[in-house]
Amino acid sequence: MRSICAVQVRRLDMIESGTVHYLRYLSVMALRACGFIIFRRLAQSPPDNIEYLLLQTSYGEHHWTPPKGHVDPGEDDLTTALRETREEAGLGEEHLRIANNFLKELRYQVRGKDKTVLYWLAELRDPAMSVTLSEEHQDHRWAHLEEACKLASYKDLQETLREAQHFLETGEKKE
Length: 175
Ligand SMILES: Nc1nc2c(ncn2[C@@H]2O[C@H](COP(=O)(O)OP(=O)(O)OP(=O)(O)OP(=O)(O)OC[C@H]3O[C@@H](n4cnc5c(=O)[nH]c(N)nc54)[C@H](O)[C@@H]3O)[C@@H](O)[C@H]2O)c(=O)[nH]1
Prior knowledge:
Number of domains: 1
Largest sheet: 7 strands, mixed
Bound molecules: ligand 86P
Structural class: alpha+beta
Number of helices: 5
Distance between the termini: 67 Å
Shape: globular
CATH class: Alpha Beta
Number of strands: 7
CATH topology: Nucleoside Triphosphate Pyrophosphohydrolase
Strand content: 25-35%
């Protein structure tokens, strides 16, 4: 009887990784994530000179979003955004020019729980710099606004990208 229990416990330990671990994590953590809408400017004339960076997850629905991720306990939001961008895209603060006066908050539900995502806006200083993905993502794309909106299939994220474009073209936030 004792040995059966030991085997069962070991099996439970083994499935403690992957999705089970992730679902347990979700059930205890408040869902808050932070990241950057990263853009680069090309030589073309406006508006085609602006491209946005989107990453495609290697898990789940394989959805596309800008680099972002969960806030660690005790971490401030901007530090999270910078850490996640370095981890997920290989781009650090030294590679970015962070825009003043642009911060967008998205709220949506993930598996029945409210999630808040904060996005800052940042320009890649060297447009030729390459992106280095982590295991969390399987692909990345630099895309003009309309293509970026097709990849980012969520209405709120599409609106955020449109607001970023408006901000970059006019220097003003959309009301
Ligand atoms: N095994 C496994 N493991 C997973 C899974 N899933 C995650 N992991 C692990 O967690 C780590 C990631 O940790 P971080 O990087 O720190 O966090 P985030 O960046 O926050 O990443 P998430 O993917 O958790 O969160 P979202 O992007 O928010 O996607 C969640 C759902 O929300 C919807 N959704 C997404 N975006 C929008 C939007 O803009 N607007 C709207 N309206 N809806 C949106 C969409 O339906 C989507 O399915 C990975 O390494 C994995 O280990 C999974 O399914 N199976």
